[in-house]
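Closing statement on the NDP sub-project.
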Amino acid sequence: MADKIRIGVLGASGYTGADLVRLAARHPAMEIAVLTANSHAGKPMRDVFQHLSHIELPDLVTIEDAPWNEVDAVFCGLPHGTTQAITKEIFEKHPQTKIIDMSADFRLRDPAVYKEWYGLDHMATDIQGEAVYGLTELYRDAIREARLIACPGCYPTAVLLALVPLAKAAMIDASDIVIDAKSGVSGAGRSLKENTLFCEAGEGLSPYAVGKHRHMAEIEQEIGTAAGVPDLRVNFTPHLIPMSRGELCTSYVRLADGASARDLRHHLLETYAGEPFVTVADEDVLPRTQMVRGSNYVVVNVVPDRIPGRAIVISTLDNLVKGSAGQAIQNFNVAYGIDETTGIEQLPLFP
Ligand SMILES: NC(=O)C1=CN([C@@H]2O[C@H](COP(=O)(O)OP(=O)(O)OC[C@H]3O[C@@H](n4cnc5c(N)ncnc54)[C@H](OP(=O)(O)O)[C@@H]3O)[C@@H](O)[C@H]2O)C=CC1
Ligand SMILES: CC(=O)N[C@@H](CCC(=O)OP(=O)(O)O)C(=O)O
């Protein structure tokens, strides 16, 4: 293979950053050149993550100390609000760099909507316009040309892969979507939070951010665009479930006149025929997190609702792989013209 592409991972001491490093370390076209951290800066990566002690990795440095002239591509796994300024700075000094962001900082096209949901002024409105929404299966052509890729949130990835094709084909009523979502605790990141403590997350199931979760903005943006419905509103309720990784979204939809659950499933089968990572489950198989754990796969299916004129669409993924690091690498592969499955072909872990 020609020279490897040198990558930097911002936020390598976090969950998405660490999973990115785990996958990148075996990617034949990548060389891990720079890893950054905040409170963990100055430490060897193996001191922070013992599961990565089998390989040689650069030590963690602060963003300020990172040598940007030594990287070709940057993956960002930073908290919301911390990616815009550094993205601008890198592009100003090294305009050829490709940036693949796993945070929400460039996902929302309208900076006013970003402010509404994140409570922050957008600090890079001049480059927001060139950001491509990194849902690979739906934006592949634009990703090929992009230097700034905004990977979707984990819940939106699961929901949009299932619903956008149906909304686009006008097979469902985009204005009547109710999404019940559940996520493992790693979705909340590695920092200490009360609701993620073992004693408080274990043996329980808790709804959170009901009626106000910021992923609604992303889901509305993308389904609204696909369906041609400006100001679309969806109902989305996430729950924290006591497992470390994995996510399952159950969407209750109203069928367009004449459409059946079976038609919806056939449409998804046609849409995703040939897609390496989206599996439409066999007719009687219900998606379960155990079908995707540790992998870049998404499993979807559609079943009839007992209420006439409605259907239930279920989708599942691993929030740290297809929901963040795996999808980021999939986008990297597309952006660099590498076979899309490179480095992320792992089958799910089971049991
Ligand atoms: N977890 C998930 O399933 C998903 C997360 N995301 C998004 O990806 C991003 C990262 O999430 P996740 O890995 O879970 O988060 P973590 O909390 O696990 O990690 C955050 C990382 O950012 C670093 N960091 C924190 N604050 C700063 C700062 N002010 N300046 C520089 N670096 C900083 C931390 O360094 P240190 O630890 O050394 O202090 C750490 O490396 C977030 O935007 C998140 O919303 C997207 C999809 C899925
Ligand atoms: C369990 C849990 O807390 N999950 C996170 C999802 C994080 C994510 O996927 O996405 P963002 O990049 O948009 O934060 C949450 O609901 O905020």
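The mean pLDDT is 97. With this model delivered, the sub-project is considered complete and its resources will be redirected to Aim 3.
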